[in-house]
Amino acid sequence: MIRVSRQQELDDATRAALASGRAHPALGLFIDTLMEMRGIGELEGEALAGATLEAETPAAMSPHALDMAFAAIDRGAPKAKRELVYPELSKLPVALRELIREAEAKRSWGTLGPGIRRLDLSHRDGLKLEVIRLDAGKAVPWHTHKGSELTLCVHGEYADELATYGPGDFSITDGTVRHQPKASDDAPAYALAVTDAGLKFEGLLGALQRLVRQ
Which of 2, 33, 39, 139 is deepest in the core (most CB within 10 A)? Predict the structure, then answer.
């Protein structure tokens, strides 16, 4: 297990993957959200954008390009966006917030147990991206992991047996970790999670999980 504190920055391999476009979309969104929440990487992003523009081959514009742009403006403002199910998520970084809005337009938040909800954002190329919501004072049942899980606290606060997480804090866990994340008693907590396999629950939930697989 690896836990990364708020003060530490992203490793060179991760930065290189993002800069070269090799990062999986789920991982890319995760890291973009992390960097924006921590307020880091702005100069790095500007440098990358400048280098990208310099590498582009100039293309001739249509002689009617400006007229087309003004025509698009004259067609009016875009339709009002639908409200998020949970208003507290309206302050999340734009990319994540809009992905949640798109997901809510297609599906409802699922229920994992009393006071625990989840929203699928994508499931592609072996990685699953989702948002987990814990009501105030609620905990995820005891579990381990079938694979790796990358989790970022995006709102509120939750804790497990080894650490407390606030917005911008993240952890990387694997099959060696047994824990029970629990939201603070004051407010709900939200986490953005990227997994390459499912969770292994204990107790009755674990028994039901095994029964379903049979």
Answer: 33
Residues 6+ apart with CB under 8 A from 156: 88, 134, 166, 167, 183, 184, 187, 188, 189, 190
Residue 78 pLDDT class (50, 70, 90 cuts): low
**Architecture of domain 1-214 in CATH?**
Sandwich (2.60)
- The residue among 177, 176, 178, 172 whose CA lies nearest residue 195 is 172
pLDDT at residue 67 is higher than 70: no
DSSP state of 136: T
Judged on CB neighbours under 10 Å (0-12, 13-18, 19+), 172 is middle
- Boundaries of every domain in the chain: 1-214
For the chain, report the end-to-end CA distance as a whole number of angstroms. 30
Q: What is the CA radius of gyration of the chain?
A: 20
